[in-house]
Amino acid sequence: MRRPDQQTTTRPTPDAAPGPTPDTPPAEATRPGPGALPSGAGAQQPTDRIGPGAQHLADATGPGAQHLPGGTGAARRPDPAGSRADGHRPTGSHPAGSHPAGARPTGARSAGDLTTEAALAPYLRGQAAEFLRSLRLHHEHSAPADSGGQDAAAATRALRRSARRISGCLHTFRAALDPLWADQLRAELAWLSGILAREHAYADRLTRLVEALHQLSGPALPAARGVRAAGDGATSDAQGRAALGVGAARAGALLERRLTLARTRSHSAALQALGSSRFHAVADAVALLASDVPLAPGPAGRTAEALLEPAEHAEQRLLTAVAALPPADTEPYNEAQDAAWHQTRLLLRLHRYAHEVVLGATDPALTGAGHALDLHRDAVEAAGAAAAAARTPRIAPATAYALGVLHADQRHEVEAARAVFRETWPYTVALSAS
User: Fold this and answer.
1) I need a labelling partner for 299 at 20 to 30 A (CA). Which of 145, 202, 347, 413 fits?
2) Which pLDDT score, from 0 to 100, does residue 398 have?
3) How far lies 208's CA from each of 295, 382, 402, 413, in Å?
4) Which residues of 334-372 are buried (b: 16+ CB within 10 A; e: fewer)?
């Protein structure tokens, strides 16, 4: 574990000079953002204020946008990381490119500027303004003509990116904000992000699986799957390639039917959601956030520790989750282990957002690890889609064989992504403890 005199990666040094905040990091893979997490009750945020940011909604929401419902009825999911274990941080060392002992990137925020008014409130207002701009662009590029499809997809990604960051900060820094307001808005943003993600998730999954089928049905199977015993190895490989070639086309057609249907339904659900009163309530609440951030009552929530302690807690939960990951020599087809990796991806995202708030910059040391976890998630979901298609009743044996090979290929991609994560994870000592 870290020594008491070692600085965490999310605590700025007192002598650091403030500087400009860098741009938002690149868009992540399209998937639902962090869900609503449990929290206590607090004073309800008034809903009769309309800030100047509501002007951005003229084209997208129309008149009569409703506010978020009051009360405590917002759906919540359990805390993804559980309680803090023993209050200790897992063994680890600061990576190169992180920020031990005052070495932080240019433009990072100093400790003197670390208050909710100086750090958290401007961050949330900026993300709310980006949300409203993306919403306007999405409305402009979602005309009946199909020519703006790419621009609409980019606007949707930007919309979800802002929603994820707002939701993550509302969870991590809930103690510094109006708790009831934060819980309600976080739950609604999680719903919106999930609705918008599904259509593009199905499209990306279909592209991934079809490309993998083309590669697997080529002139030769990959070496890891084509090794046979001496003597009948050549004959078995030839028969396997022939069977895979026959079933690959049918398997691709089956996957295209299933995933295209799912994508169409998700598109319809997204359009319905964007026209619903619930969405207008979310957009109106974000418009209020762009002009006014409801902070916790009293001076306690406005100190530097109100941001430092939650950010360090988010880092602690991430390191604990990484230390608990299954070791490298486990069975790659054990799908019960996928949940722990998905949990780590969620906690890494929360840590990155807290890092942006506290230090005013992203942590470049975690870029590779985050990308590896995104690839892991994509491969897991693709393998699940192949397995679900193989359970279709009355399919030909060649089709089932091709889908089985495709499932095995994607599970190997899962293991490869885990290996990349272990190589790029900067806290090597903490990871080796698993």
Assistant:
1) 347
2) 92
3) 44, 7, 15, 11
4) eeeebeebbbbbbbbbbbbbbbbbbbbbbbebbeebbbb
Region 285-294 average pLDDT: 93
Number of domains into which the chain is organized: 1
Beta bridge partners of 295: 177
- CB-CB contact of 97 with 364 (8 Å): yes
Stronger pLDDT, 19 or 299, i.e. the higher one? 299
User: What span, in angstroms and rounded, lies between the C-alpha atoms of 2 and 231?
Assistant: 56
Average pLDDT, the chain: 75
In DSSP terms, 177 is beta-bridged to: 295
The model's pLDDT over 153-178, given as tens digits with 9 standing for 90+, comes to 888 999 999 999 999 999 999 989 99
Rounded-to-integer distance, Cα 69 and Cα 46, Å: 11
Domain that holds residue 358: 114-216+240-428
Average pLDDT, stretch 195-207?
A: 94
| Residue at 227 is within a domain | no
What predicted TM-score, i.e. pTM, was given to this entire model?
Answer: 0.71
Q: Give CA–CA dist 246/401, Å, rounded.
A: 10
Distance CA 346, CA 416 (A): 20
Provide the token pair at 407. 């499932």
Task: Judge whether 344 lies within some domain.
Answer: yes
Query: In which region does residue 102 sit, left (phi positive, over 0), alpha (psi from -120 to 50) or beta (all else)?
Result: left
What are the backbone angles phi and psi of residue 315, rounded to the nearest 5°?
A: -65, -40
Does a structural domain hold residue 332? yes
Helix boundaries (H) for 173-304: 179-216, 223-226, 233-274, 277-289
Q: Place 54 in a pLDDT band, splitting at 50, 70 and 90.
A: very low
Among residues 339, 360, 28, the alpha carbon closest in space to that of 164 is found at 28
DSSP 279-314: HHHHHHHHHHHTT---BPSSSGGGSTHHHHHHHHHH
| pLDDT of amino acid 410 | 96
- Whether residue 234 is contained in a domain is answered as no
d(CA 385, CA 191): 23
Query: Of 305, 345, 364, 310, whose CA–CA distance to 22 is shortest?
Result: 364
CA proximity to 254, closest of 377, 87, 65, 394? 394
Backbone angles phi and psi of 31, in degrees to 5: -160, 165
